[in-house]
UniProtKB/TrEMBL annotation, chain A:
Biased composition (Low complexity): 125-149
Biased composition (Basic and acidic residues): 155-178
The keyword DNA-binding is assigned to this record: yes
Species this chain originates from: Phoenix dactylifera (Date palm)
UniProt name for this protein: Transcription factor TGAL5-like isoform X2
Listed Gene3D superfamilies: 1.20.5.170
From TrEMBL, chain B:
PANTHER family: GLUTAREDOXIN (PTHR10168)
Record function comment: Has a glutathione-disulfide oxidoreductase activity in the presence of NADPH and glutathione reductase. Reduces low molecular weight disulfides and proteins.
Key words of the record: Cytoplasm, Electron transport, Redox-active center, Transport
Gene3D superfamilies: Glutaredoxin (3.40.30.10)
Gene Ontology CC terms: cytoplasm
Assigned protein family: Belongs to the glutaredoxin family. CC-type subfamily.
Intracellular or extracellular location(s): Cytoplasm
Top-level taxon of origin: Eukaryota
Domain Glutaredoxin: 35-99
PROSITE patterns hit by this protein: GLUTAREDOXIN_2
Name of a matching Pfam family: Glutaredoxin
The organism of origin for this protein: Elaeis guineensis var. tenera (Oil palm)
Location, primary (coarse class): cytoplasm
This protein's name: Glutaredoxin-C1
């Protein structure tokens, strides 16, 4: 690339004084700018140094080899910068400038330099050189170079000392195009530096999140399956642990939706506003069904045994979740008043879900049958026939895999039931309906925690009397505790 | 529920006079009855879908693909039709038109579109 050539040639020439040369910068194409982006700021920094050295090294008295090896024979390719600009610097050749300039400053200053320009602060030299530019440059190019100047000002703060380069004050010719390109390159470098910074910050925060997640996972594993598993201990699969965690998060989010619904109803929001909340709530249910679908692929037994729910919910568990017809039975009294048409719709929905549940249950029963047959095949009391055994094990594994299909169909049915309910009801009714579902499950969870914390100590109570004892005051206090952190059988 | 026996398949096969594209065969068989289920005898989900229709009082025509000599091809054709991988069964056709696999059948039953479809095809009266 042209830039490489620049660097190489430039490095070979070093010296304090410089003769600015018309870059003939056809070498610096837009592709080069992309190149800068890709390689990053560090490379660009080196490159700019090299560039400046190259610029610094140029003598325009014809003794030196050309700056660009493919430099055109004549330099009069930019008519707005007539050749006479090259001549005038000659008389200023005596000026030797210390290597004070930064990238931007030197490029800026190579335009045209007065004798009196001080080599001190780059900013001053930039400003002075821009003054010179106004004097020397053609009208057409002056604005562009000046426009380039403000871009350079922030860059000068970087204060990258370029060894061996000068402030380029001997009237080096740099046309407006190359100035612009240099400015763009610098901008690109700056942007890529910023991007790199942002990326690193992102990586850092991701790393922190990852360690937090790992800690959560560890905690989940050590605690067994939250309230559910009891003695199962550390035998939880990673997919199950992940699902438990996601479910916990889903519950927290669900609690927020319930609050929104409650407040929305109490505030008597308009139907439009309430609809937004209700639809959000429904979409949230869609989310848990999606998550369950993913978990079913890796650990369907975890779902179907309900180890992710609380004990009381597990009582009612049907195929890894709630039974839609049962839920509807609970909800219908809560939906009052219903129109005739709505009542018909809800009742037929209840009937269809009952039929579907029945069908799935019978399919599951057949699956149990074949699974049991496969496991029990051959003789159980005498030695096993290995060949047959392996075949039967394969069948049994296949049946277990079929379980995933059933849980998926059951979840599909639950999702469809919720959607159909939403369709039948008005916005307000649907809001109350979803609130009712949430409240019902909260109560089940509360029941579970009450059950888990019921007094079982031997010292203070007669064990036999315990069976019929009234709940102790401690139990009553527990009722009032927030229970949304527990799980429901969804 | 009517199960198509292998002999009648053979007869139909001979009557057609040779090889037919499996998908064509599927569609032809599907058009012959109001409710057609393509199934595999050992598949539990197929059992579930059969129970569903029987529970509604419908009498579907069932083709057990594992008992048909060309069942494998038809299963593949059905899988392609549904645009998914295995298992391709159960697949339900009502009134000669494809309804789909179990999830589509369940969804249409829950949202109330299955019963009108059955009535239209003459599989259900009431």
């Amino acid at each position: 690339m042209a830039n490489h050539r620049v660097g190489e040639t430039g490095l070979s020439d070093s010296g304090p004084s410089s003769q600015p040369v018309a870059y003939g910068v056809h070498g610096i194409t837009p592709a080069a700018t992309n190149f800068f982006d890709q390689e990053g700021a560090a490379y660009f920094g080196e490159l700019e140094e090299a560039l400046m050295q190259g610029v610094a090294g140029m003598r325009n008295d014809g003794d030196r080899k050309p700056f660009f090896t493919t430099r055109p024979p004549t330099l009069e390719i930019f008519p707005s910068w007539p050749m006479r600009f090259q001549q005038t610097p000659k008389c200023q050749q005596g000026n030797s400038q210390p290597a004070e300039s930064t990238d931007s400053g030197s490029a800026q200053n190579t335009i045209s330099q007065p004798d009196s320009e001080s080599p001190g602060s780059v900013k001053a030299s930039s400003e002075q050189s821009s003054e010179q530019q106004q004097q020397r440059m053609m009208a057409g190019d002056a604005p562009s170079a000046e426009a380039a100047a403000p871009n350079h000002q922030p860059k000068t703060q970087d204060n990258r000392r370029v060894a061996g380069s000068t402030a380029e004050k001997d009237g080096k010719i740099l046309d407006a195009k190359s100035l612009r390109r240099l400015a763009q390159n610098r901008e690109a470098a700056r942007k890529s530096r910023l991007r790199k910074k942002a990326y690193i910050q992102q990586l850092e925060s991701s790393r922190i999140k990852l360690t937090q997640l790992e800690q959560d996972l560890q905690r989940a594993r050590s605690q067994g399956l939250f309230l559910g598993g009891g003695g199962a201990g550390g035998n939880i699969s990673s997919a199950a642990a992940v699902f438990d965690m996601e479910y916990g998060r889903w519950l927290d989010e669900n609690y927020r939706h319930m609050t929104d619904l409650r407040e929305g109803l109490q505030a008597h929001l308009s139907d439009g506003d309430l609809r937004v909340i209700v639809d959000e709530c429904l979409a949230h249910y869609d989310e848990i069904f999606r998550v369950k679908g993913v978990a079913a692929k890796s650990d369907v037994l975890h779902l179907i045994t309900g180890m992710w729910t609380t004990p009381a919910e597990r009582c009612f568990l049907w195929m890894g979740g709630f039974r839609p017809s049962e839920l509807l039975k609970i909800l219908i009294p809560q939906m009052d008043p219903l129109t005739e048409q709505q009542l018909v719709g809800i009742c037929s929905l209840q009937q269809s879900s009952q039929q579907a549940e029945e069908a799935l249950s019978q399919g599951l029963e057949q699956l149990h049958q074949s699974l049991g047959d496969a496991v029990a095949s051959g003789s159980l009391s005498e030695g096993t026939d290995v060949g047959n055994y392996m075949g039967q094990i394969a069948i049994a594994l296949g049946k277990l895999a079929d379980l995933e299909g059933f849980v998926r169909q059951a979840d599909n049915m639950r999702q469809q039931t919720l959607h159909q309910t939403r369709r039948i009801l008005t916005v307000r009714q649907a809001a109350r309906c979803f609130l009712a579902i949430g409240e019902y499950n909260s109560r089940l969870r509360a029941l579970s925690s009450l059950w888990a914390s019921r007094p079982r100590d031997v010292c203070n109570r007669n064990l036999i009397a315990d069976e019929s004892a009234c709940p102790a005051t401690t139990d009553l206090q527990i009722i009032h505790q927030p229970v949304h952190s527990h799980f429901s059988g969804f | 529920m009517q199960y198509q026996a292998a002999e009648s398949w053979g007869a139909a096969y001979a009557a057609m006079g040779g090889r037919a594209d499996p998908l064509e065969r599927v569609e032809r068989l599907a058009a012959e009855s109001a409710v057609v289920i393509f199934s595999v005898s050992t598949c539990c989900m197929c059992h579930a879908v059969k129970r569903l229709f029987c529970g509604m009082g419908v009498s579907p025509t069932v083709y057990e693909l594992d008992e048909d000599p060309r069942g494998k091809e038809m299963e593949r054709a059905l899988a392609r039709l549904l645009g998914g991988g295995p298992p391709a069964v159960p697949v339900v056709f009502i009134g000669g038109k494809l309804v789909g696999a179990m999830d589509r059948v369940m969804a249409s039953h829950i949202n109330g579109t299955l019963v009108p479809l059955l009535k239209e095809a003459g599989a259900l009266w009431l």
